[in-house]
Structure formats: C-alpha cells, structure tokens
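Sample entry was shown:
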Amino acid sequence: AAGLLPVADQASAAGAGAKVIRSDNSSVVFEITVPQPRIERGGDGARVVIEGYGTFSPPGAPFLPARTFHVAVPAQGDPSVTWTVTESEALGAVTLARVPAERFIRYGDDGIPVSEMYMPEDPWGGRIPPETVVSARPAMMGRQRVMPVQVRPLMGQDGGFVIARKIMVTVSFGYASGPAPERSGARTAPGVSGVWERMYDRVLVNPGDTERFISPLKDRTALRAPMAPGKRLKIKIRETGVYSVRADSLIASGLSPSLSNNGFALRKLYYDASEPDLVREEDIPYRIIKGSVSSADIFEGDDRLIFFARAVKDDIGAGDTMAVFNTYNIIWLFEDEAGAVMPDGQGFPSGTGRLQTSFRHSEKMRKDTWYNKFVQAGMRDFNFAGGPQRDEVAIPFEVHDAQEGSVISAYIRVMGNVKSNPSQDLDFYIRNSGGTSLIGSGFVSSTEEKVFDFGMIPVTRLAEGANQLVVRSRENTYGFLINDAVIRYSRMTAVHDGYLDLTVSQDLSSRRIDITGFSGPEGHLVELTDPDSPMFNDIPADSFRADGSSYTLSLNVPAETDRRFVALARGAGMHISNIWIEPDAGSELRSSPGPYNTLVISHSDFLPPASDHLASYISWREAQGYRILRADVEDVYDEFNGGLISADAVRRFIRHGVENWGVEFVLLIGDASEDHRRIFIGDPPETNGSPPDYVPAFTYSVNVIGREKDEVVAADKFYVFLDESPPSGYSAASFQSAPSPEGSGIQYLPAAAYP
C-alpha cells in the first residue's frame, strides 16, 4: 500500500545557514551566514561555488550562486523583504563562466535523440542583477503560508566581485497598522500532524512560528440542504441548439412519473467561490408541448420538453471550451422545484415586409477525432478534428439548401506536426459527388498554428448533403493536423429534419420570411436573439400554406436588429439519447462537518459495492488515528464543477478540505490518462486504445530537451499547489504510487505543497 509520508524536495533551511534573530507580530528577522566560497576555474571562465547553493542564472548568463530560504508568514497581510549586508569578502577580478544550454540535433541510427551543448547569447547583456535578496509571492505549504526569499551573495564592485558572507534579512508582514488582525468567528484549526511538523522543521527558517501563524479554518457557511436521493437527473448536451425530449424518455431514465407540468426545474450549475455554497445556479427556461395522449396537468407520455442549451465548447463559464476533459456539457433537472418557463414571444404582426429567402449559415467541423500528445509547448488544446497525416486529411460536413448563384467561404485552423519542418505547402479542396475542387493554398511552418480564410468561392463547389473538406500536403513528409473548420454559405429558409437555425437580417421596417419544408401545418419558433432569455412562439395553423407535398410557414418579422430563431416542426428538435440521461443520487461533501486530516478520492469502480478493498485500508488507517473522508470522484465533479469532469474540480475539493477541515493528506485511487476523453479507444476497449481516466491528472505540454517534438505530460502534483493555476513548480512535492489489487494506481500526496 502507498505510504503516508509526504516528501519535500527543498534543502533544509533551519540550522543550515539561517538563524532567527527576532520574530514578533510585525516581522521576522534572521541572519544568513554564507559558507566560504571556492573558485573553480576552467577554459570557459570561473565558477564561484558555495556549498548548499545552486544557480538562478538562465542559459547564456554568467553562473551566479543562489539559494532560496523559506519563511513562515501569517495567513494575512502583504509581506515584503529588506536586507543589509553586514560582512563581505573581496574576490577580486574574476571572469565568470556562463551557463550552457542543450539543444536537439537529430535522431541517431538507433532512434535515440542526439543533442549538443551550446552557448546562447547572454540574456543579461553582460550585466549582473543588482539585488542581493529577492522575494516571491507567498504560497501555502500545507496550512502554513510561506514566503520564498532568494539570496544571491555574489555582487559586482569596482570592476571585480565581492561575496556577501553575512546578510541580515527582515520579512515585514505588511499589515496596514498594528498587530496581526484576528478573524472574527474563525475556527481553531486542529494541530498539524507530526509528519508536517517535521517537514516544517526541515524546510522553514522559523518553524517555531507555525503554531501562531497557521491558517485558521474558514468560518462555517450555511449551505443549502443536499438534494434527496433520486430527485435530480443529469442530462448530457453534445452540441449547441434547441433540444426536444419526450416525457416518457425522461421517465424511463429515472424521472418520477406523475409530475405536474411545472413540477421541475432545468438548471446549469457552475462552480463559484464567491457563493456561500460554492455553486452558482442558472435557470434554463423551458417549454412543455403537450402530446396527444397525456393528461392536461401531468408531464407524461408524448409530452415534449423544449429548451436551449450550449455545448461545452460554447459554455465559457463551464471552463472547458477546448473540451480537454469533456465531450458533453451537463445540465440538471431538479424535481419539486419551480423552474423558469420560456415566455411567449412578442408575436408577428400582419402585413408584408421585404422578403428574405436566405441567410448566412456556418457549418462547423469541430468533432474531435484525434488526441495529439506532441502539441506545441504551452498549448492546452490536445484534441483535433483531423490528423496528423503526411499527405491528406479529410473532414466530412453536411450542406443543405445552399442558395444558387451565391458564394461561400472557408475558415480552417491548421497546426504543423514537426518542429524541425521549415515549411510545408498545403492545398485545400472541397470533395463531393461532383468531384474535387481546389479552394485555396498556403503553408505552415514547424508546429505553428495558422488560420486560413478563403472567400469568394462559387457555391457550385458544394453538393447537397455529404461533402468533405480536404487538406493535402505537397511534401508528404512532415504531417499536419486540423484543429477545426467552418464552411459559411448562404442557405435557403427551409427546415431540414424539421429544424432550422436562421438569422433574420436587420431591416428598417420588417422582413417577410417563408420557411419551407414542414410536413404539416404546425410548428414553433424559439427566438434566440438573446440565447440566455429565449422566447417561445407557437405558430397558428393559418400561418402555413400547402406547397405541394409540404407546407410553408409565412411570417412578417419586425427586424430593427438582427434576430435569431430556431424553427421547429412539431416533435422536432435536437436529439437526446436515453443513455445521455441518468439519475443522480446526490452527495453531501461540502456540508460534511469535519474535521478531517485525510481525503480519499476514488473512482466508483474501486468503492463499494463494486469493490471492498478500500474499506479495509481506511479502517486500518483510522485505527492509526487518521480522520478520513472518502469521496467518489463523480460527487467531486458534481459539487465542485457542476458535474463536468475536471482536474480543477479535484483541486477545488482539496482546497476546500484544507481550508475547512484541516486536511493534510490526499489519497487518489485510480489511474489517469492523458487522453482524458478516450478519443483513442479500440475493440475491445478494456485492452485497446487509451486506458480509462479514473481520476484525471493535470496535463500540459512542455519542451523536452533532446526531442524533436514537444510533449504532453501529466502531473498529479497539480493537486497540491493550491495557489497557482496552472502551477509552475512541480518538483516541490513528491508522492508515492503503488498498484491496487485491481491494477489501478494508488497515489498519496501531501495536501498542499510549495514551489
């Protein structure tokens, strides 16, 4: 089993060159004694080497020794640092060696990368930074706030160098006035464990101050009562649009039968730290269309629930617009709560405005089909609509009712696949039953992301129904990927499968709209001019006229501004599969009273009733005195991210535990996958493709020295850096890992660490 001891990478500060002189409610003063330096000379110059000191110099700059000391500071205030050099030693004229860098050259015959050391330009331009002592922003180490203070003892003077041997450092706590402020009503935190106490003794300059500086637990807040089990549903949303779902489908998926027409609410839940219970609820207005066999006051049978919802890529508040973790967005249905009813629209006046027969439609191609591990360093978008291919990438799209004689445009985001590629030429085509037509050309270099926007393309390049956007490389060597693409064309006002999303263009008076293709003389218009406040229009039968085997809806639409509508035939709307609807049993993590010093976060596959292995482990640890809260990671997503999968949700839960319960340790149970959405999944999925992402790790792309490609890496240590987003100092905390009996990873981390 995994051990319970957190490990710190920092060198010991206490008793190794730092001595506390004074510590009170306003500041801490300590003296640094710098060991005797030695000068190591070589062909490239001299290095001043000090025991226990590294260097802060970037590649190309002179090698300057430095060391960081960690100072405990109070939970509040804006600390700052001042210093005085009290003793120094002259070193005379020394030509300092510079710090080399490493770069990739090629792959060897055995496939192993070959690199070389080289000397880049001096980023300091021959100057030496003048600061002898610098500080960085304080961060939390466990429940103790800590400020890093870096000492750089080598100083330039009179054309030579001196080394500071004794430095008096003062860290002022930065209160506006007077002693440390007290938090009214703050709860006393339980004492730190012996493990953390030993860590503080090893790492901090002033470990004796932790008892009075340690952060108190947050004041208790009045949380809303948890939802009763079985009284809410989670509904998955794949794309943005107006959805229509039958009552019997919802009931088959867990909705209580015999609810009244207004006996439930639809809501989107967002994590919001400013809210008392950390959740912001936004009502989703809906409308019920009564069926032919249902009771007048009961939602049942063929009744339909109509509402507008956004895909996760369009929902900025959900925090996953790149869809790193989620294929679907989540909305919630709450029983026995009053929801927001979609109000009636303003209606359509009589008269005849200027006829509008078409509108500008955008067909988006953004379904991710490829997870790319080798994206450019710094990117968080790892999923692509197509690629990587050396020769050709083809992405399908649909076209319906394109206006004859019009022109189209194409917007395509492309990324190169190989850093060493100087440039590759690309050609862009549209392919369909009528042939393959060139629409533009361009080039992409290295792994850059580039946007191509081609216009004035004849609409004859499109075919009704199935089409493909094709991108070809002339070199067939380096490869490329397509992030996403949009085809914009003029579309006639005709419903397809009973659905049409159209924009009525602005006019000084009004517009007449003829919408063709209805199967009968009945339908609805949902206005989305303000998508957050949709309005419902039930269209009377006399607004339709027979047009051969179909019907045409004619309306006079006031259009002082552009107005957006979705036209629906009766029973039509975007589809929700029954497997996208599931009941939620509810959870009470946020309202748990605590205190706890350990969180165990697990995927449900390793919790009862699926598995009993964890129960014996928890019992063993509780017998040793650990206060443990066990959490299903799905409940963590629900309470700390509105039901959406996210590494942020896990970290928010850990932060909540540290601040409210005094948590010191976290145990994660379940392997992670860099391909969070399992875009690569084989047959059978248990053994092929990407593994399940039981408890997600934080993923990010970095430059890998000696590699031709940057690379996506995963870090569970993200969860213990509670002050940074994303964190930068991953090496500051360590964790241990061991396989569980089911083969999952068990990882134990200190609850908060420090860069």
About this structure: Residues 393 and 471 are 5 Å apart (CA to CA).
